[in-house]
Predict the 3D structure of the following.
Amino acid sequence: MIPTWMMCEALDQGDLIPLLQDFPISPPSTPINAVFVHNRHLAPKVRVFINFLVERMEAVSASQIKKEHN
């Protein structure tokens, strides 16, 4: 299964449609953690990936909040 946050744009545009909505995944939201040793030797590609995840999660969270309040 692909998490909703990874396909929310395609869902919003109608490129994908949700199936099996009567069978929710439990728990409905599963946290994602980036675990790494915080030091000066962190590989640049790891930092870029962590920043990408943070930006993506913030955008998805904001989008979901807007949907819930409409």
Summary: The chain has a mean pLDDT of 76. The chain is about 50% helix and 0% strand.
